[in-house]
């Protein structure tokens, strides 16, 4: 079961998606009681969505404390919105799944600034998820896809209870992204406040490379070698920077694949990622 939810972030009401593990659900009254004041209100209740996956209805969610998987989407504004079919795929792996939409999107207040203040929408989600009685607050992992890598990496730095970090086809160097993506330069100038040479700090503040050596949790890089939207070299640079002084970093390279993987390979990569999340540090995942 997936809920479209509303929650507070820096005084704004922003949107997101909360999914229960596949096969579990909450009764209407339990959902109201457990989510109210965090991910719903009288004015903006959590809205259950129809799932494309078959679900059993007799399994009790609150019988244990669940790990959480946060999926930080790519794109900006309404371009690249949360992929709910990805949320469903993630829910197959025995995790609560949360996907922030970012401010200014899907009816949320504020403005998406491509890894600017919208990072706080992810911080707020981590705090609120940690308060849910059926969540294990020490088992919250986070994945950033494409530009979502910015929000995910900074969340891993700022929120001390993040268990593991995954950067999938992720931006690590915003200046390189500006140089590579000629088609997005006008958007970057408008949203970030100019090109890198006029506003270098704003680009550094959106570059996970800047903070790589400060990230305290294990990190997995997932990247296709033929990615033309976020160059494979960005994954390589992030891996090399992280790998300078630690041994809890892994790189799942996918030869010949681009920014988005074909469905069958995408599902296999998701399973491999969740195997990595569940493994002990330094334990090899084939």
Supply database-style keywords.
286 residues; alpha/beta; Rossmann fold; nine-stranded mixed β-sheet; 31% helix; globular
Integer-rounded radius of gyration: 18 Å
Compute the number of strand runs. 9
Helical run tally? 9
Beginning-to-end CA distance, first to last residue: 31 Å
Our estimate of the beta-strand percent is 15-25%
| Largest sheet geometry | 9 strands, mixed
Overall form:
globular
Assign the CATH architecture.
3-Layer(aba) Sandwich
- Classified by CATH, the class is Alpha Beta
CATH topology name, in short, is Rossmann fold
Mean pLDDT: 94
What is the domain total for the residues? 1
The CATH superfamily appears as Alpha/Beta hydrolase fold, catalytic domain
Helix and strand run: EEHEEHEHEHEHHHEHEH
Poorly predicted runs of 5 or more residues: none
Share of helical residues:
25-40%
Give the strand line-up of the largest sheet.
Answer: 3-1-2-5-4-6-7-8-9
Structure classification: alpha/beta
Your description of this structure?
- This protein is an alpha/beta fold.
- The chain has a single domain, classed as Rossmann fold.
- The chain is 31% helix and 21% strand.
- It has a nine-stranded mixed sheet with strand order 3-1-2-5-4-6-7-8-9, with helices on both faces.
- Helix 8 (232-242) links the parallel strand 8 and strand 9 (249-254).
- The longest helix has 16 residues, at 263-278.
């Amino acid at each position: 079961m997936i809920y479209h939810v509303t929650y507070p972030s820096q005084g704004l009401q922003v949107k997101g998606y909360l999914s229960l593990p596949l096969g579990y659900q909450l009764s209407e009254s339990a959902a109201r009681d457990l989510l109210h004041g965090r991910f719903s209100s009288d004015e903006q209740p959590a809205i259950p969505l129809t799932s494309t996956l078959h679900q059993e209805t007799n399994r009790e969610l609150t019988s244990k404390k669940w790990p959480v998987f946060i999926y930080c989407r790519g794109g900006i504004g309404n371009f690249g919105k949360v992929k709910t079919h990805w949320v469903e795929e993630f829910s197959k792996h025995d995790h609560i799944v949360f996907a922030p939409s970012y401010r200014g999107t899907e009816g949320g207040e504020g403005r998406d600034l491509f890894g600017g203040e919208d990072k706080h929408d992810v911080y707020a989600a981590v705090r609120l998820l940690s308060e849910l009685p059926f969540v294990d607050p020490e088992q919250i992992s986070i994945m950033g896809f494409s530009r979502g890598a910015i929000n995910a990496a900074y969340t891993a730095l700022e929120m001390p209870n993040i268990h593991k970090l995954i950067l999938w086809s992720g931006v690590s160097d915003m200046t390189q992204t500006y140089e590579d993506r000629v088609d997005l330069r006008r958007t970057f100038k408008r949203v970030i406040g100019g090109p890198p040479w006029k506003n270098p700090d704003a680009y550094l503040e959106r570059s996970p490379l800047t903070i790589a050596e400060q990230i305290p949790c294990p990190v997995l890089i997932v990247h296709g070698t033929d990615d033309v939207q976020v160059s494979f070299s960005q994954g390589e640079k992030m891996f090399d920077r992280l790998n300078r002084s630690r041994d809890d970093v892994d790189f799942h390279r996918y030869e010949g694949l681009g920014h988005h993987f074909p469905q069958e390979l995408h599902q296999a990569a998701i399973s491999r990622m969740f195997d990595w999340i569940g493994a002990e540090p330094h334990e090899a995942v084939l």
